Amino acid sequence: MRCALPRLRRTVARLAAVALACLWLAEPAAAAASRIKDIADFEGVRNNLLVGYGLVVGLDGTGDDIKKMPFTRESLISMLERLGVNTRDALLEPKNVAAVMVTGELPPFSRQGSRIDVTVSALGDADSLLGGTLLVTPLLGADGEVYAVGQGQVQVGGFKAQGQAATVTKGVPTSARIPSGALVEREIPFDMRELNQVKIALRNPDFTTARRIAQAINAFLGTPAAQPTDPATVQVVVPPGMDVVSLLTDVEQLRVEPDQLARVVIDETTGTIVIGDNVRVSRVAIAQGSLTIRVTETPQVSQPAPFSEGGQTVVVPRTDIQVDEDTEAKLSVLEGGVSLQELVNGLNALGIGPRDMISILQAVKAAGALQAEIEVM
Fold this sequence. Notes:
Elements: H1 4-32, E1 34-35, H2 36-39, E2 40-42, E3 48-57, H3 70-82, E4 97-106, E5 115-122, E6 133-140, E7 146-153, E8 155-156, E9 159-162, E10 167-170, E11 175-184, E12 197-202, H4 207-221, E13 226-230, E14 233-237, H5 244-251, E15 255-256, E16 263-267, E17 272-275, E18 280-281, E19 284-286, E20 291-297, E21 300-302, E22 314-316, E23 319-325, E24 332-334, H6 340-348, H7 354-366, E25 370-371, E26 373-376
Parallel strand pairs: 16-26
Antiparallel strand pairs: 1-15, 2-12, 3-4, 3-6, 4-5, 5-11, 6-7, 7-11, 8-11, 9-10, 12-14, 13-14, 16-17, 18-25, 19-24, 20-23, 21-22
């Protein structure tokens, strides 16, 4: 019995060490995992776009030119006629009215009487919407029905000041927002309790990620209720006796490590390069050199000698061309199968800028050594 006790203690200590090691190794995977609600959307839980046409009044002489904008004039006349004012034959030249487009998003399950934010943008030649008030504007959905009505004081984030010789503009004074500026008048009917199955749409379609999501859901439910139907969709059958809302509440909290394609995104306009973690490079040698040609124009004035007859003062062109070729550039070797950090270190060792690095990555891809997809924005 005395011999068995120390042996039992050693066995327990080994098991505890193994458990701690497993937990330590599992920490990076857990840290890289994301919740399903952050990488996918659920069927029926979506925003709906709204748009409307209206008038902004009360501007300080920065509205539309009625003579040049017939739609503003007709809208103003129609609005006044609905209020009982006949101005069809009158001479209207107000400068404090602007025609605008009003846009907004109807959140999912918005109820009648709730408020949403709207954006107001000038449609004509108005200089600024600062200080204006949006009149009652119906907001239509894709089906042509009115789902909200907007009205209120617009909030402009920019301004424009103009003088005789200078103009100062900050931001976009012809675009504004109205926080909680629209009142929901119609609800979109959708009852989740009647669903027998729910579809989960991945924001970044991928076969591996879809399968991992299905496996995580099945492991949580203990039944094969989830099945990927394509790279962008996972179909979940609601188990008998389970509420759909409760099911989605639990499912959206499950953590899955999303997979990603080996991709290099390049924006040549700004010189931005984004390299994915799965990008790999085969063994390749790279040399980067620069050729600079400078052309300098220094025109000179040639004048005739004093008291000369028939002489003229002319401008004589003088051109200086210099060619500078970097002869110190050497071949650098990038080993095959390197990680993202090693790839970045190897490219930085060449001592080049982002725009030259774009050309190098495209050349490496053309050589077949870059095992990734290049996407040019």
